[in-house]
Amino acid sequence: MVVSERTLANGRAYRTADTPVALSVDQIAARLEAECRRGIWRRTKEWEMILNGLDASQLRQLAGMARHLILSTTQDELRHSVISRWGEADPAAALAYSTALPDSTLREGLVLLVIQSWLYTHSHDAIAWVRDQPPGALRNELVNRAVEYMAAHDPRGALELAELLPRTIRSSSYANVFKSWAASDPASAAAFAAGMDLRPSERLAVFEAIGAAWVAADPQLALAWAGSLAPGGQKNSVFNSILANWAVANPAAASEYALALPPGPNRIAAITQVASAWPTSDPEGAAQFAAKLPAGASRDNVMRHVIGNWANVDPAAAFAYADALPAGPAKNDMLSNVAMLWSLENPAQALSTATNLPPGSGRSAAISQVVGQMALDDPDAALSFAKSLPPGSERDQLMQSVASTLSRDDPQIAAKFAAELPPGTTQLNAISSVVFGLAQADQNEAITWAKSLPEGMARRRAYEQLGEEMMKSDPAAAIQWAQSLPAGDGRARVLETSIGQWVRDDSVSALEWAAKLPDGETKHQALLAIGNQLAYTEPSTTLDLALQAKGEDRNSLLGHIAQVWGREDPKGAMERALKLPAGEDRTEFISQLVIALSQQAAPEAAAFAANLKLGDLQVQAVDTLVLNWSMADPAATASWVATFPESSMRDSALRNVAEQWAIVDPSNAGKWLGRQPAGAGRDEAFVAYTQQVAVERPQMAADWISAIGSPDQRQVAIESVARNWIKQDRNAAMSWLSAIGRLDLATGL
Question: H or E element: which one contains 28?
Fold first, then answer.
């Protein structure tokens, strides 16, 4: 790489009469060694003068002598200072030093530092070097940085350089170029951007960048330009961005503009942007301005932001303002947020104010935030206050909230809170938090605390959580501990949750361990636990495990695998299903697979089922497939069902299709059913059809009564039609009953 004399001269430019090199390179290296030995090196004005006073050869010598310090992962500031200065003085040597390192994030970081300095001193040479780099993540970052430097003096060239980036990540570079361009000539930048072939996300980023720069010079012209854009979401976003930037610089002018807009979505959006950007030094003014928004989600969101800022300045006033707002979830959120911020400065005063609120969710939320914060500083006081509350849900929720808050920082105090809770879900959740916190610091202490809990659900929940935490660090010890538990303490469940955690962390080791277990209950439980977790990532392996399990759990696991595999990889699941040997396992797995497939791709499930052997499918699976498919495409489902041979499966399918099709197209459903061969199956289907249709169209249902061959089934259908018809038109119903000789039914209806 050739570096111009001009670039090299930049390194010498820092040496002036005011910054003489008072120390030799050896002395500088020794001093760096001493300072780094004491801790992390920090840049000072003196060090800046020392490093700026070194020429290229001295910097090369220093980089060699202090190499171990510069490359130390703890000495980021030293590395940045030395390499950046070297990159200014002699980029070629600094790059050679950096690129000689093994591939790593450290190496890439050094290269970026050198290029950043080189761009600063002589961008033309640096950009030429960047162009020559091979595609990849490092070049992408180098291009982004080079584009920023180039944009100020050659925006079109910067855009051309950005073309080196993959299309999917150009938005930010484009935006940087146009923001720089628009700072000096917004009209030209906007005109050029309008002619570019940009993706929607790129166009939005570019237009927002132009607007942000333009508004600084002339807000009205910037807004007029935004108004000329094509209607749509992009136009609204650019408009909002311009207004927000205007409000930061001149809230009074921006608010006057927003209020002058005609009522409608644009005015609401404008007021929202201005209120959100209102200076934090005037929170009351921001709140009063935000109140001009119509009631709704937009006003609530802005109020949350404004009142949060207010609480940082004057929490008492912010709390009083929030308390005066209309009741609702938004008010509760604001009160709790203000209470939390207030408690950082004066927890006693915040708690006193919160407890004086009227009973309700707002009071509970505010107290929870204050006590949670108080617990971090004075846990005994927080516990004392919580215990002083009357028994009830508010007290319990507060105890659980504080226990969760303290579980990481002070699990011992958190345990006291959990112990004060009555048995139930709230206490169980608190116990889980406490065990988590204790186990992070000392697992033996966590075991001791869990043992101290009373027998029952509380201890079992603690053991379950503890097993998961132990498994993260020492699976063998966790399994041994779980197996040592009495059955009454939930040993089986603890093993299951512990092994499940092991599979999530290291499925290979968990499988190897399970394979070595002797046949018995432990192996059975291990296979179930591993299978339930592994089904999501390795379904084929999990199926092999399931076939080793026993009893009802075996079928449950087969069903779980089929559901997961069928949803994620239906083709692979079907191929594996057909390779299973004939028998109950094959039938169970295929049936569950068809059910899973029917929920997302019923035609494919039907095609798969059509090629199966007799006995491969359970009637339940076909019923589910027919129901799911007929809801989406009853005609196609009916055509498929019509191909079934005479069987109870066909009868059930006819009934399901007729009932579902009757909901959306009763006329064609009836005609199709009438074309099916007469028999008990068709009679049952017609009964289901008439019962469905009679609710809204009893006349149509009545027309098919004669197609039912079975007298008993016909009687059921007649009664259903008559009952619904009489409710709608008694005279017409009576005429029909008379015509079929069943006026006797009218008495009971």
Answer: helix 25-38
**Does residue 585 sit in helix, strand or coil?**
helix
- pLDDT (tens digit, 9 = 90+) per residue, 117-150? 999 999 999 999 999 999 999 999 999 999 999 9
> Rounded to an integer, what distance in angstroms lies between the CA atom of residue 613 and that of residue 300?
62
Element housing 414 (H / E): helix 411-419
The DSSP result for 321-354, as a single string, is: HHHTSPSSHHHHHHHHHHHHHHHHH-HHHHHHHH
Residue-wise pLDDT for 676-704, tens only, equals 999 999 999 999 999 999 999 999 999 99
Nearest to 397 by CA among 375, 418, 374: 418
Average pLDDT over residues 219-248: 90
- Categorise residue 232: left if φ over 0, alpha if ψ from -120 to 50, beta otherwise: left
H or E segment at 15? none
Q: Is the pLDDT of residue 193 over 80?
A: yes
Angle between helices 570-577 and 551-568 (to 10 degrees): 140
Give the integer Cα–Cα distance in Å for 681 and 687.
10
Q: How far apart are CA 510 and CA 295, in angstroms?
A: 56
If one compares 598 and 55, the residue with the highest pLDDT of the two is 55
Return the DSSP state at 612.
S
**Residue 630: partners with Cβ closer than 8 Å, 6 or more residues away:** 637, 638, 656, 657, 660, 661
Q: Are 357 and 363 in contact (CB under 8 A)?
A: yes
Question: Distances in Å between the alpha carbon of 524 and those of 184, 449, 481, 560?
Answer: 74, 30, 18, 16
Q: Residue 11: what pLDDT?
A: 44
* Euclidean distance between the first and the last CA atom of the chain, given in angstroms as a whole number: 100
Which H or E element spans position 412? helix 411-419
Give the number of residues written for the chain: 749
Q: Say how far apart CA 694 and CA 717 lie, in whole Å.
A: 9
**Element containing residue 27 per DSSP (H, E):** helix 25-38
Residues 391-415, buried b or exposed e (16+ Cβ, 10 A)? eeebbbbbbbbbbbbbbeebbebbb
pLDDT at residue 81 greater than cutoff 50: yes
Vertex 207, ends 203 and 211: CA angle to 5°?
A: 175
State the average pLDDT over residues 188-197. Answer: 94
Residues with Cβ within 8 Å of 249's Cβ and at least 6 positions away in sequence, in order, are 215, 216
Residue ranges covered by each domain of the chain: 535-632, 665-749
